[in-house]
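Take a protein:
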Amino acid sequence: MNKNVRRLLLILLVLLLALLAFLLVRCRHQQPPPVTSQAATPAAPAPAGAERPPAAPLAPEVLTPATLQVPATVTAGAAFNVAWTGPKNPDDFITIVRPDAAPSRYGNRAETRQGSPLNLTAPMDTGAFEVRYVTARSATVLGRAAITVEAAAVTLTAADQVGAGAIFDVTWTGPNNGGDIITIVPKDLPDGQYRNNAPTTKGSPLQLTALMTPGPGELRYQSGQGARVLARRDIQIVAAAVAVDGPAAVTAGALFPVTWTGPNNGGDIITIVPKGLPDGQYRNNQPTTKGSPLQLTALMETGPAEIRYMSGQGAKVLARRDIAIVAATVSVRGPAEVTAGAVFAVTWTGPNNAGDIITIVPKGLPDGQYRNNQPATKGSPLQLTAIMDPGPSELRYMSGQGQRVLARSDILVVAAGVALDGPAQVVAGAPFAVTWTGPNNAGDIITIVPKALLDGQYRNHAATTKGSPLQLTAVMDPGPSELRYMSGQGQRVLARRDILIVAAQITLDAPRRVKAGSPVQVTWTGPNNANDYVTIVPKTTPDGRYLGRTPTAKGSPLSVPAPTAVGAA
């Protein structure tokens, strides 16, 4: 073995020894995990420098004897008082069980924290029982008292038979415990189940609603505790005599009379439906409480249909009769064309059902929508107002039921010829004349506004019903303005004309010093517009306020009263 090989082996040996030493030190410093019987949730670490407080030990359970005072007998399911003494450990309770029940068994119970006396509910089983004071932790019985649970005296009295769905009286006697009910059920329905019912808290007699299914039935007194049947009585449910009658055919959407016989139970209705509509569904209807005959509204769908008597309970069809719904003869006519916004006459024929209208709409407006309209109840002919949008349009007869278009005819809406003329300029606040032509529709106005004011808004104005020419009052703001013809329908600007508002030239001349409260001669020049006035006020008075004033309509010069306060004015 040469010298280089020996040196390499030596280096490898040193490295191996170093690795073994490192592993030995690491193993000595590792602690084995504690052995536990079940996984435990780690507690939150205590703050630095703090000691973990020891768990508070449970107070020892007090097992001193308890006493119980109870009545000798109690009715099954009834609440009764228990007076007791005892240690009242946390969660201790009073319970009622059979005398031979194990200490760990309990029935109806109440915790002692409720105080003495407390209420306990007797079980539904009858016979010998025991009331016990039981500790919660160790289930130790510290006291007991004997008690006998007796069956309740329960009776039911009612008619031997009743019409399906009818309301009838039931007289009963019984314990009237919490949750007790009187119910009517099919004869073979298992005990513990119920159908139509009323709580015994409603007293005796109480009212029940008979089932809709004819056949043998049973009245039952059912306990709230355990749903036990404490008494039962047979009752026969008989089918009601039901019939409906009406015309063989009726116009779509029209009112028509229906005569009927039937039980008139709560929620019963007479309805008209398409012939194939499944039972239990309904369309136009009236409650039977409205009497016979009653008025129904025919469907809008034409074809075979049915009048049905439908019960409020279960929505069962008790009687039915065929009826045909025929289309109404409907037409609507007006002029070939009309001026936008103008009032015009429309003649029509149709069913004139509730809610039916005559409307004018743009030609492409989807059916079911409407614009200007009048109810058909206004007769024929009636007056309509044309829409403001020029172009092809339609007159439509639209049903109140379903908003269906039953008839339509074309009409052309043409733009109105509208023009305005007035002075090129006017003094602010001054009256001036405006000549106009236009449709003079209801609500149309002539207005003067600042040039930049948005369409649809207005300032000083006069109704076109005042004729042409009419008088307007200029706005007070000098600058570019507009005369506008504005429609009453939609506040649209149908014509406009530029007008310039110029500031008024106004001068005032009066003595520089006057006596307080004395009249002052004031000479003035100005527009002398309606309601203009001259006033003398203290220098600091805000604009728009005055003490006394003299209208310019009295001419120049004016006698104007000076303020009574001394000072600058």
